[in-house]
Amino acid sequence: MASVPTASQALQSQATADYVVRVEDLRVEFRTSIGVTYALNGVSLEIPRGKTLGVVGESGCGKSVTGLAILQLVPPPGVVTSGTIGFRSRESRTPVNLLEYERMGPEMRHIRGKSISMIFQEPMTSLNPVYTVGNQISEAVLLHQTGEHKEAKERAIDILRKVGMPNPERIYSNYPHELSGGMRQRAMIAMALSCTPDLLIADEPTTALDVTTEANILDLMRELQQEIGMSIMFVTHNLGVVAQMCDEVAVMYLGRVVEQASVEEIFYDPKHPYTISLLKSIPRLGTNRKEHLEVIRGSVPDPYSRVTGCPFHPRCPSFMPGICDTTMPNVVYMPDSPQHFVRCHLYNDLANHQAVPSGVSNSIGGNGQ
Amino acid sequence: MGNYILRRLLYMVITLFFVSIIGFFIINIVPGSALDARINQLRQQGGEVSYQEIQSLKARYGLNDPIPVKYWKWVSGVVHGDFGESFTYQAPVSSLIGSRIGFSILLSSFALIFTWLVAIPVGVYSATHRYTIPDYAVTLLQFIGVAVPDFLLALILLVFASKVFHSDIGGLFSQQYQNAPWTWAKIQNLLGHLWIPVIVIAASATAWTTRVMRANLLDVLNQQYVQTARAKGLREVIVVWKHAVRNALHPLIMTLGTLLPSLISGEVIVSIVLNLPTTGPLYVSALINKDMYLAITFLMALSVLLVVGNLLADLLLAWVDPRIRYE
Amino acid sequence: MASNAGVFADEAAAALEPTRDVGRLSQWTLMRRRFFENKLSVTGGIVLILFYLVALFAPFITPYSVNNLDSNSQYAAPTALHIINGHLAICGVKQTLNKSNFTWVYTTDCNNSYPLQFFAPGFSYKLLWVIPMNIHLFEVPKGQRFYLWGADVQGRDVFSRTIMGSRISLSIGLVGVAISVVLGSVLGTASGYFGGAVDNLIQRFIELLMSMPTLPLWAAFAAALPHDMSVTKRYFFITIILSILGWTGLGRQVRGKVMAYRTLDYTMAARLAGASSWRIILTHMLPNAFSHIIVVAALAVPATILGETSLSFLGLGMLPPAVSWGVLLRDAQQVSVVESHLWLMIPAVCVILAVTCFQLLADGFRDAVDPYS
Amino acid sequence: MDNDERHAGADWGEAMSTAEMTIGDGEPLPEDTLLAVRGLKKHFPIRGGLLRRVVGSVKAVDGIDFYIKAGETLGLVGESGCGKTTAGRTAVRLYEPTAGEVLFNDPQMGPVHIEHLTPRQLRQLWTNIQMIFQDPFSSLDPRMTVGRIVAEPFLVHKMLSGRALQDRIAELLTVVGLRPEHASRYPHAFSGGQRQRIGIARALAMNPKLVICDEPVSALDVSVQAQVLNLLEDLQKKFDLTYLFIAHDLSVVEHICDRVAVMYVGYLVEMAPTEELYHHPMMPYTEALLAAIPKPDPRRRSRPIRLPGEVPSPANPPSGCYFHPRCPYAQEICKQERPPLRKVAPEHWAACHFAETLKLQGVPRLSQLPVDVQAAPSAQPSTQAPSAP
């Protein structure tokens, strides 16, 4: 069993007391024939126990890859090149580094589905079309909870009822294609929660759904979270969903977390220029002002190019020549809110006042190039 | 489902009707018939064959009628189980075919089973071990397998067997069983001979199917539900065989439509080379000798085999894939 | 309106970012690049080019004309080549009578060697069917026999016959597939674009053709051809027979593509731009489907080559005096004959090599066209 | 370019006036109507049985009425499968309508009935009606250069060529925020947002009056979405365009539309000016839709009424008001009778038996945005000005 590296020990005082997963300096590359793309460039984040962490960002920022990497399911040609993923289960509480387990080895498989489970964006494609919903749910139950087929079926029907299926016995023997999108996502949630995991990684679970269905699914997730007492890592690009669902928010840009704070601070006291621009660029319900939205210039650079300095500098409204384009900013903690950190040169002074040990910020982000 | 099968059966009848028209027409457009050969034979045997005799022979076989009339006569016979008479063998076509079509079905079905038994595991292995040396080896074998025509493979095997083992691997039975009644020993003897034509017929189909299977599985392995299965904590073996392979089978079943004709064609030509008592040799000699009723009946029999095979394939697909519900 | 240019200057700046160089490259260029990265397919392509060059210049390469009989050389084994005095040469043959069973025994006598003569005159022919010539790539002195790949039952040179046979075997694939492509594209496009009754009719027709066992039906067609047809006529009909049944797969593919393109937004945009159905088919659908057509066609060539070989092998395709690989292989039908005269199988090696190369080529095409499949 | 020349030779039949058509329950059209649709239906057949006869139909659009005034933006919203895209395409006869009337006030020819036009006339008409598509990938032919894509209408109508055409393409690309030299590139070199700009340039090529925007920003990232929305607004002002804006994102629709029409299972259930619709909805479905939108504000977390069940299939809709099985206010009559779309207030149409009596909740007016509380980072006090590391 590995422990989280010593460099992070100092961080412990700053961080929340209890976490389920703490990711540090996670790097993932995709090595293709055209070249290497860097999906994650040192992601550090912490998922508090029993709470919901929202991970937001535009497409290509690496938010989904982060979720997959925690389960060691990054599809080839993706490779985790460095970092640690500390996981503390409800029972043992001693952190283990998941990356020390073999990808398909028994320890990792024991964690998947039992302690950490995952649901995906497309309810249409994430259930196997040739097996009944019940078969797929009891498969997980049989694997982690009981060897009894009859008991597994009962539990599966139970959990189907719990996720609000109108007729769980019938749904049990239905095939996925016989259900609507919302129903399928409920079935996926049932499957993911069948073993009462410590953490649910939800990768854009409502993006493909209609608003009214989305609202229902979000309600359901909140209810079940209360009941099971699990944490949720909620990956999404929808800031509305984040505001409604999450306790903590990590904002990602080009494979890094650029700001993490409580949801209140992210929406009412954002620090990073990217977070601010993102919030300003969405049309707000209830304003009906026909004036220009604020825009972020340009678009996310293509994944094969590497930007020097702060990766956001070419699009940043607060760009400081000579600084932002040369040096990768370090993580800075806000003095008045110890869990709020941001990775931006604008707050360098704060970092000096705070005198955060340099080892800490390096261990979180390292100096990019 | 019932509706679907009914409709398919209807289509089948229509298809076979058209096949019979086309086949009948093709086989009949050539001037001359097996009768001329017989007349020559008669002449050689015992001098003159009178004009009247020729005419009566022609009338007996209905050779003076225009093609549509001939066709009509033949079809009305077929409905009553009379497929006409062979000129060359001077025997009812049905008795000539009856004994041989069974072997054709046997060979083609065995070839199909062999194809899938080999292609599926090899394809799965190849796909899950992509870009490894065994995968490249399999790929190379596939190319060669498709490139070697059936009859050549049969020929090569024959030459090889005769050079190395000094044995004749042609035919379906050893000498002593050739005309023996059916016994357990005869069946064993048959199975002992069967594997060579089966492998020969199935070789290129197997190569091709392996490729299809590999490509399908690679597709399926990229699907989200495979990732879901992994996220459940299932072992990779179960992820691949329970969740992925089952889905990769559908396109394979769909390719039966192209696989069956090639197996049946393969059976025809391999039988000629290996001298098997199936439809192949008789069909080709009937074509060459213009033994028209024999030829057309064989053609129809092969078509029926194919059409029924296709229907079974579609039903199999519906059985394997719950999403397919034929209306 | 020209004065309006640049009104949205800051917007313009916002949208500008370096687009990569590949942006200037058309789909064709990209495909070509991807294709040339696949060494195996390029090798296949090069070998095929050699094959076709040999077929084009066949009479120049062959030392004997195809029907040059020699009763003294029945089943003569391949003549060995030696390097003597720095020249490629063959050894002379001494003929002696075996007194015990009174058969002729041939022994090679390398003291008596004859160098190959390159670009030497031989039998007359027309280069590329036009230019009258009698120069050949190599010849041996008069009176000597040189069978690079042995001789057949009538003492004809297998090498010359195989080379000449490649003309029919290789061209029938291309010509047959060309006919299939035309039929398949036209009917497939019509079926996919117009849908409805047209589609229904064509699809039923394709299903009908697909419900027939290919080889037996080919055989029936071929058997209907009179035996006394000229070689050219027979070639023409056999090609048509092979392509009549070959277009169905292509037709389905094209139809599928066209139906997919029909639902794409750019087709709708073209309609809104006022484009007629013909224009949409010609400028949007066929160019996009073309690469797929090429792939399917490349895959169909080997099938057609094998089809001709099989038919001729059965005695239903090309018939002597025409030479094709299938016709040559007919000589190899008897196991007893092949066993002792293995060189009769050389045309088979050519068939396998050509078909393999076509497959490599087609595979490369497919990967280049659709890198994600 | 000469607009009259475009129509030379086209026989448009009798001219008519907008006054001939009414919508809803006999309401006359506003004077400046550009497009009006009445009773528009589009059914797709379902085949079945032994002989594959038509046994039913998917009523994707089943009799809708709406109008668009010149220069405004009408939003058409609804959940997936409600028929909004089909409605947009059928209205301009990209799909052949099953029934209904469509009136278009052509700037050259005056009001014409689209459903009566011959294919040739239709092609002329379409020079005034263009479309922007949702998917920035499938909307551009991958084998054509950007210049060729934008030039297509000119080539089809043989209107411009050579230098003039090149200039026009350069001009169009500049207008949408691209560079003239992009004309020689292929679509695959562009990002989603840029592709959407190319699509917009193509739509603008012939100086259309009406542009149908079919989910133009839903495939884009938030930051790029804002760029494209701004561009659409600028172009509308500049070229006096009228938009039919089809979308499912109600925040975007509120931002860009003057009036909004809501669809549910092939029907139009409510149509009103944006402010009115968002603040005073008169159809329970609209209320639920607005309530379901996740608000990007953690202080406004509410658990309002949630709709039970799911959107019914247009192949097999419920009786009466299609919304009644999910409606919290449903009465007996709602199961029996389908309420017609009727005028319930000035410019406000609703299809609900109880539109006037229900007091439905809309979206509260926002006076303050969460993020506005925060000063822009560049305006940080100088003491916190960054120092070089």
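qc> Chain B has two domains: 2-93, 100-320.
qc> done
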